[in-house]
Design a protein that fits this description.
The chain is of the alpha+beta class and 121 residues long. The chain is built from three helices and four strands. It has one domain (26-117): Ribosomal protein S6/Translation elongation factor EF1B (Alpha-Beta Plaits, 2-Layer Sandwich), CATH 3.30.70. The protein starts with a helix and ends with a strand.
Length: 121
């Protein structure tokens, strides 16, 4: 029975080591935000800056920033036919993505968003 206990202890140790290695990995992501057209450019910039700050506060790094401007939506969202589009490419520890989703979900000015993990090949 002691060999079984030793095996369990060893497996737990290996599992914890793997978890520590995975937690230290940053991955590349891309986010596209669609903001409501009902707000001005200053407010839009403030919202996007807040998301940029979230990324950097979590130890991430933004590699690309683009503003695509006002574009027509494929279908109405909250009775809006247009949205103000923003793109960010960034690297961040994968554990912070769920926190980021929750952080973005609080804002009523963001009509839609999509975070995609980029292939590093």
């Amino acid at each position: 029975m002691t060999s079984f206990a030793s095996l369990v202890t060893c497996l737990k140790s290996i599992s914890n080591s793997i978890r520590e290695i995975q937690l230290g990995r940053t991955r590349d992501y891309e986010i596209v935000l669609i903001l409501t057209p009902a707000i001005d450019d200053e407010r839009s910039s403030s919202i996007v800056d807040r998301i940029d700050k979230f990324i950097t506060d979590q130890g991430g790094e933004i590699s690309k920033e683009e503003s695509w401007g006002m574009r027509r939506l494929a279908y109405p969202i909250q009775r809006f036919n247009e949205g103000n589009y923003y793109l960010r490419k960034f690297s961040l520890d994968g554990d912070h993505i769920k926190d980021m989703e929750a952080y973005i979900g609080v804002s009523e000015e963001i009509l839609r968003h999509m975070i995609v993990k980029l292939d590093t090949k």
